[in-house]
Amino acid sequence: MLKPQEAQDRADALISQAKKAGADAADAIYVCDASTQVSMRLGNLEDVERSEGEEIGLRVFAGKRSATVSSSNMDPEILSALVGRALDMAREAPEDQYAGLAPEELILKSDPHMIDGDDGVDPDPEALREMALKAEDAARAVKGVTNSEGGGASAGRSIVALATSHGFSGAYSTSGYSCHASVIAGEGDGMERDYAYDSTRHFEDLDTPDMIGKEAGERAVSRLNPVDFKSGAMPVVFDPRISNSILGHFVGAIAGSAIARKTSFLLDAMDTQVFGDAINIIDCPHRKRGLRSKAFDGEGLPTAKTKLIDNGRLTQWIMESASARQLGLQPTGHASRGVGGAPGVSVTNLHMNAGSVSKDELIKDIKHGVYITELIGQGVNPVTGDYSRGAGGFLITDGEIGPPVSEITIAGNLKDMFLSLIPADDLEYRYAVNAPTLRTDSMTVAGG
Predict the structure, then answer these.
(1) pTM of structure
(2) 198, 221, 244 — which closes off a domain?
């Protein structure tokens, strides 16, 4: 696998070729990945997979016309032909008045911020096999577990390099490790499944396989024998494992492209109260060992800590250069891209701040409600904010979490949900997007 500097040199070289061939502007992104995955099921080795690959993508501009090409073959002759093909395509493409590189005065000019994203560890397949086996064994050891979908462990490393014709050049490497288990509890028509996993940048930060497996087993058993309940409007409480999905809907609604196309339910929400005044939502691209930490975005702009929601108020859209130009604004350092196509946008390590009450206090006054641990389906309208998802979880009665419920539907509107959310004090940084336990009293629950 290449070193980051070698990857950076490849991107720089392709830009140099594009400029010599007559491109008015260009950018290139190089991505290299290598990973090993081991899967176990019922104590037996099921699969060992090793994958390695590299790709380079080139975007060229001929005036306001552009084209993107990519290749997984790094042969110099093939890359040279790639440049020529890209320019030919660009000259035939329609004009786009918003196309172009990021503003030159905004690109990162200092040394990239260190994100501590690569620990250099390379566990061998035997070590991963042992982790997968321990995770599955711990899950199967939980009383009530009757079958297994398997345990797994993986280790990988990625290198990303980006270069632009107006002066940006940078690269970084990240390592990644994960372990999971998925098991089934119960018999016949009463079977239930659940899972647990952990994913980290540094190997030493990974939860132990025993912890992961035990959690998977206990979650599956806790879902046995679901009960019926009375439908209607009631408080809904989201477990932290899935409460972060609500932030995902928020991010989609503040993407510059959605605002420019007028396809967002938050279209007119800038500088208004979107969440309760105790809520802040923050993007932290420089968090040490963060799952999505990076010093620069997909256009070479510096990344920075951003408070997207400040005491409940929406402070900004997240924009790459094209949508920023369309909106008459500046890009925000949130551009993301692969080797094909123009940049889109994404957040990095996003979180909602913790509240001031415990989970127990959050639910103690709920006479009849549900505690949601699983969401199913994609029933969200990004234009209106209407929300309807299949779900599973547990009944809340007189302030206590009780028996499981399954095959229910929760429905509401994201605008109302956002304003009514109350966070508990149990925020943990386990995923790329994190939120504490969340309660909303603005939903309807049916089924069960």
Answers:
(1) 0.95
(2) 221
